[in-house]
Amino acid sequence: MAAIELNDVTKRYDDITALQELCLTVTEGEIYGFLGPNGAGKSTTINILLDFARLTTGHVEVLGYDAQQESQRIRDHIGVLPEGFSIYDRLTGRQHLEFAIESKDADDDPDALADRVGIDDAIDRKAGGYSKGMAQRLALGMALVGDPDLLLLDEPSTGLDPNGAREMREIIRAECDRGATVFFSSHILGQVEAICDRVGILRDGTLVAEDTVEGLRDATQTESTLVIDVDQVPDGTSSAVRTLSGVSEVSTENTSLTVSCLDSVKTEVLNTVENEGASIQDFTTEDTSLEDLFAAYTQDEQLSEAQA
Amino acid sequence: MSWTVVAKKDFRDAIRSRTLWVLSALFVLFAAGFTYVFWFIPQLVGQQNLPASGPTIGLINGLSSSAGFLVPLIGLLIGYKAIVGERDSGSLKLLLGLPHSRRDVVLGKFVGRTGVVAVAILIGFSAGAIIALMLYDSFAFGVFVSYTLLTMVLGLVFVAIAVGFSAAMRSASRALYGVIGLFVLFVFVWGFVPTVLRFVLNGFTMPNLLARPDWAAFISLLNPTTAYGYASAALISDLPGPMMQNPPFYLQDWFGFVILAGWIVVPLALGYSRFASTDL
């Protein structure tokens, strides 16, 4: 059974189409990163999963339940960190956690939850005085109540400092190890690369790419930079490398060759260098950053259309 | 039974924010104050040779006219932000991220806020009863209890109307305009509506005001505060009821309860159906 299944989901607001025949499947037990620039439709998708928004056409199932007909049952089994929420100013952190525990009919310990999300020292303070980051941590704590089968996290690192974002990732990983599926949206890539099993990239309401981080890299055929240290550079080496298809630039500095080429021809470049009589001491690759990949998918019309 | 969790939280929130205590103090001031003034100015209570329930009936009559203003106002103000306030702030997303259905939210908020108004009325009227028991020569305790319960029902009606608005509207300010408009309508305007209608139907000349047709009486009765008067008369036999010979069933005093029930069910149902079908 899929944890999340969206079939041909279209969502229109008046004359704006937020989602266009979106199909997406999240497998049980995986960490799925839902990427896209602001306004791509990520929050709309999550709102539909939660029945905060109703789809115009299509079909959505979460944990095997119909998202519109059986929303309450779905929310019994999931933990939610919504986007653009606010906490209850007059309630303490503990009262928030207790309310979530009572609502889910669970038996978690509020202190243990607060400790886990790093607000244990503020648990008995009114949440009205919390910073944005603390409110985010508190809401994550509420989402973890009752060991949910699925965590839906909309821009979870909003308001968190780098350290907080790292703790968030650790919690996500731990939840996945426990057996939960994690679906989270982000417009920041650094968070996704490190922990996601799979990534979906949304643009203008459609999925323009969906793969593992590795798979996306391979598919985009963007360039890597290969730095090869050799004992010596025989004459003709750099011109031989330059003639290979897929190589765009070669430069030599002392006994070091720097080659810009497609990922797929890296091996060929190394072989050519050896054939020219150089002995390779060491080489390093600077991968395309996910940042570049993301830009490629969300900005380059042709590329994304080819992928779609 | 997830609505009970919502209702409990809502009621506790009213305690935390001291709303409950402020309201209770207000009703203590109102009911106890009224009871004392009635004792202090005995001619208001009526002649000494009335039946045993005389002073109590006099007191209830006096309380009714003011409660018909105060209770709707309090009910509407306590209820109008119940849902739309959370929608404005964004805490509704937190609430509905938990396993509560939208129906649980409407029902829970309605019950929670009704509890707040009902408890405040109960505390205030109890203070009134204590003063009456101490000062009055005779006090019909049972009658006063019936009247207190009925006033709590009136509070419930206006909370239902306000929560209905709160569920239907997209912003708190719109819900506020809605309930203020309704308050003005029921308290200040409604009394003229039947007469104006008759004036128009009569070819813009004044009809005979003493011979009121049944339909005009029924329009008056549609006002929940009027229905509260009918229901009071049905419950407390010594209270003056609708002054009519052989009224049709829809103008008999017990029909006040039907109208009150309608004012509970219809606003909640309309508000819920709008809330249930909307995108948050």
Structural account:
Chain B: The chain crosses the membrane at residues 20-39, 59-80, 110-133, 139-163, 175-195, 215-237, 249-270. Chain B: GO terms for molecular function: ABC-type transporter activity. Chain B: It holds the Pfam family ABC2_membrane_2. Chain B: Keywords: Membrane, Transmembrane, Transmembrane helix. The complex is a heterodimer of chains A (308) and B (280). Chain A has helices at residues 42-49, 71-77, 93-103, 110-117, 132-144, 162-178, 190-195, 213-220, 237-242, 266-275, 290-299, 301-307; strands spanning 2-13, 16-27, 31-35, 57-62, 65-66, 78-81, 150-154, 181-186, 198-203, 206-211, 223-230, 247-253, 256-262, 280-286. By secondary structure, chain A is α/β, with parallel strands linked by helices. Chain A folds into two domains: 2-217, 3-Layer(aba) Sandwich (Rossmann fold), CATH 3.40.50; 223-286, Alpha-Beta Plaits, CATH 3.30.70. With 280 residues, chain B is mostly helical. Chain B is 75% helix and 0% strand. The longest helix of chain B is centred in the middle third of the chain and has 34 residues, at 102-135. Chain B is globular. The interface between A and B is medium-sized, with 30 and 21 residues.
Throw out a few tags for this protein.
heterodimer, A: 308 residues, alpha/beta, Rossmann fold, Alpha-Beta Plaits, 2 domains, six-stranded mixed beta sheet, four-stranded antiparallel beta sheet, elongated, disordered C terminus, B: 280 residues, mainly alpha, globular, transmembrane helix (chain B)
CATH H-level homologous superfamily name of the largest domain in chain A:
P-loop containing nucleotide triphosphate hydrolases
Backbone structural class of chain B? mainly alpha
For the secondary structure, the number of strands of chain B is 0
Task: Tell me the fraction of residues in β-strands of chain B, as a range.
Answer: under 5%
Q: Bin the strand percentage of chain A.
A: 25-35%
Q: Indicate the overall shape of chain A.
A: elongated
Percent helix among the residues of chain A? 25-40%
C-alpha-based Rg of chain B, rounded: 20 Å
Helix % of chain B is over 70%
Q: Which pair of chains has the greatest number of interface residues, and how are they split between the two chains?
A: A-B, 30 and 21 residues
Q: How many independent structural domains of chain A? A: 2
Span between N and C termini of chain B?
23 Å
Kindly state the mean pLDDT of chain B as a whole number? 90
Helix segment count of chain A?
A: 12
* Average pLDDT rating of chain A: 88
Largest sheet of chain B: none
GO molecular function, one term (chain A): ATP binding
InterPro entries (chain A): AAA+_ATPase, ABC_transporter-like_ATP-bd, ABC_transporter-like_CS, P-loop_NTPase
Protein name (chain A): ABC transporter
Domain ABC transporter (chain A): 4-229
